[in-house]
Amino acid sequence: LPNHLGFDEYFCGTMRRYHASHGLDGRPFKDAPHVVADDRFRVEVQTEAALSFLDRRAKIPSQPWFLYLAWFAPHVPLESPEPWFSQTPKNLPKERRQALAMIAAMDDGLGKIRAKLREMNAEKNTLIFFISDNGAPLKPGAWDGSLNAPLIGEKGMLTDGGTRTPFVAAWPGAIPAGQTYEHPVINLDVTATSVALAGLPHDKKLDGVNLMPFLTGANKAAPHDYLFWRWRSQAAVLEFPWKLIVLGDHEKFLFNVTNPEGELAANNLLAQHPDVVARLENKLKAWSATLNPPGVPEPKNTEDDKFFADHVTKTISPEPKAGGTNVSMPATADESTGTQGWLGRNCSLQTKNGVLAISQEASSKGPAVITRNALDLPGPVTLTVRIRTSAGGKGAVSWRVKSDADFPPGQTTTFDWPASPEWHDVKIEMPVSGRLIHLRINLPRPSPETQIQSITLEARDGTTRTFHFDKQK
What we know:
By secondary structure, the chain is α+β, with helices and mostly antiparallel strands. Helix content is 18%, strand content 26%. A hairpin with a 3-residue loop joins strand 8 and strand 9 (251-256). Helix 1 (42-58) runs parallel beside helix 2.
């Protein structure tokens, strides 16, 4: 229990039953840890416990405090809390609607906490971190309604789909609002940051760093040269943009994490960059030797092998959920999101008013690119894009077939993007030899918002794949 982990006060539990030092009314329990039964939705109960804690702190404004609030959401067992569940789109799978409802309940709870801090006149003296612990589980029976797309993998994996999560910091008046910090950070940094802000000396046992000089702009360097992970038979090291993943004693992967297609075996750069692999392997071994127990991960773990076969090497088909359908089990390039599995590089994608809106990132030096994998059409292929844009220019389309590990230089065709407020069908003949599995479309640069109504791929044998971006309407 938290009282054995350094916490003075606590309200700890997950579902209907909690061990507490204080009641929600703020009164201390003489027989703590006291068992509290509460049948209400767990996020509401946890939020009330946090607000009660803050009410007690308001009575002693000079006393520093630390609050750790671990909402048990979204997580199985899923619930359908109101009023949030009825506000979710009815066309989505039930699990997705439940997850969205639970996230909305957290959002409202955080809003109440920030309002309480303003009421206490403590908002400008309080640093808030909001972080998820891991990516969504996607296995049958475990899916909590969350999505990892476009990241590859799920909870339990050291690919980005398992480890890369939302990480938000807020401190009005201290951290500039509205910024996106681009360098990699890790949740271990929260402890080091908190220790520094508390005025305590740096503890060399802490792996994290104090983020404040980086978030305020006082330090322009990256907080970390390397980030490391070890879990069961998996180990990984990130030296941005390079990420080496070791799976037991039998597989290794080197990925460039800026590649929008993600950590798929088809994007494994192990053979192309042996010097990078050797450097990162040495770093990973040196770090692993400092752990308890020391050394490399387990030589083999059946569950991990299955994870990678499912998500990375694609050598097995994803398991269907109970009932024999995959409708509620999103994979990597999730088609239920409105973008129909299309991903963007150097741009943002958004579906609105029945179109795919593509906006160039102002800070990007490269062209906007949209890409789609998981295709399977025999060549040659005709690509038809229905577009409208205020600025035209030269565009390009590149493709990869089953036998290609990457996009070969010769498999590119250029075409003209028409500048017009009216809709135009742009048709591109692609001399594909083999089976088309992966496509990239480069927009002209500079590129203001471009709108796409549909994308159609038609093979010579009549096989057609069409993406209508008004599908969710």
